[in-house]
Structure formats: structure tokens, C-alpha cells
Amino acid sequence: MRRTESDVGGRDRGVHRRRRRSRAGVRALVAVLVVTGLTAGGGYAVRRHPDLLASVGVERTVPAAVPDARPSTATAAPSPVPVAGRVPPGISYPARGGGGFRTADTVGAVAGRSGELLRYRVAVEDGIRNVDVERFAREVAATLADRRGWTGDGRWRLQRVGRDEPADFTVLLTTPVTRGELCGDPSDRYTSCRNGDRVVINVARWVYGVPHVPDLDLYRQYLLNHEVGHRLGHGHERCPRAGGPAPVMVQQTLGLHGCTPNAWPLVGGEPLAGPSGQYDDPIPAGDR
């Protein structure tokens, strides 16, 4: 069976759908992570990162210049999905980034009242322009701390940590080509994935969303919860009831199959799941 959205390295090893199998497997990435920090004299102090980012081929990490703040609780109007072929003003990215990552610094509060604690780090690839790493990290943290999310039923607690603290997984916002390399499927520049302790978010989907999910904010929340769900051990699921909300582990990036878009593991305060399995949806060519 062909595989898809998106867990590599766990029980469910789909990388979204492969257009072809890679005979060589996951390409080894050997660049060394260097963490840079401003010194008092205006120069740079250089040090090695102790753990996860070095394993994904990160060359360097630039410390964030913007201090962290708690996410606003104000309700904003949904962001429309951009018209195909158009990037929203101010956001741009190359097909392949520089390979280095800027890592968010601030340690967040523990989200969730009980359950196993997992710590995560957030980083943005060099070359993705006008996406502030600290702001992106706050968006990630707000989604993962939501009561409708994975921490809502008492099974998990999640905490965002900075670049120098031990972490159980890393959320990486990457360019499309880097996504293919980190996910072990260079032919796929469209989807996102989870590969081991990497939760790889393709900036193309973060910017464009998908045509069948008109609310871009909801799609981004789905994207984070789906890929983190793989890190928590969940496999793909199918739509349980036409007209009902899609479980978050349905590959909503590729199709809804009668369900309606849904970003959250909990619906009405209860976990929503569908039959185990996935659909044979094709992956669109390119990254749009």
C-alpha cells in the first residue's frame, strides 16, 4: 500500500503519499548546528547545540531578537486561504532554504493538567522571510495548549522549551525541498510530516493552506495537531460519518472524504476518532 500524511519512524511510517519509493531511504544530513548569541561587545559567541537539531542537519541557529509574550485570547476573524499562485504580502520563501534554523528562546508554561510530560522546541529555517520565530513559536504553543487539543483530556502535558533545554521533539517550519529531505521523500514538496522526533511543517502549506479548507487559521491548527499526534503515537484515520467533523488524524491536507474540516482531537469535550486507515489520495505536484 502506498503511504502518506505523515509519520516516519514510528508504527505508522507514512510520509504522506509517496509518488515513488526512495531506494536509499532517508538521506543523511551531516551539517553541524551552531548556536549564535550576541555578546555584550556586539560580536557573536558560538556554541554547539546539545541534542535534537544537530540530528536534522541544522547548520546554525540564530537567537531570536523578539521577546516572548503570552498569546492573545482575543478572537480574530478567520484568515482566508490565499489564491493559488499568490503569496500573502510580506511572507516569502525559496524552494530550498539555507539549511540552518532560527530557534525560539523562551520557555513556556506546562500545558495540561495531568499525564506524561513532553517538551518541544520550535525553529524556523533560514530563508523563510518575514516569519518571526518567536511569533511562530507562540502560535504553535497556543495550538498545543488549547483545551480542545492533545492536552485537553489529561493524557498528555506539553511544554515549549528554548534552544538549550532538553526536548522530546522539535517543531520545524521548513522550505519545501528541506521538507522532502527531512521526511525522507524528496519527491513530495507539498505535505508536512513527522519523522522520529521531528515534526516538519512545510511552509508552503502554512502560507497557502489547501483549497478544500477555506479557513487558514483552522488549517494551521489542524496541521500542527495532526503531525504532533503522530509524535504521540497516533496513526491515520478515516472519516467516520459523512457530514460530521473529520478526526484530526484524517489526512485533511489531501481530502475530507465526506467529513467537514476539524482541527482538534477533542470535539464537544470528547476525543473524536475514526476507523484506522488512510485513503489513496494523490499528492499534488509542486508545493502549491
UniProtKB/TrEMBL annotation:
User: Does the record carry Ribonucleoprotein as a key word?
Assistant: no
Pfam families assigned to the protein according to its UniProt record, in alphabetical order = DUF3152 (PF11350)
Q: What are the alphabetically sorted keywords of the record?
A: Membrane, Transmembrane, Transmembrane helix
> What residue spans carry the Basic and acidic residues bias annotation?
1-13
- Residues that span the membrane, as ranges: 26-46
DUF3152 domain residues are 87-257
Ranges where the record places region Disordered: 1-21
State the protein's name.
DUF3152 domain-containing protein
The root-end lineage is: Bacteria, Bacillati, Actinomycetota, Actinomycetes, Micromonosporales
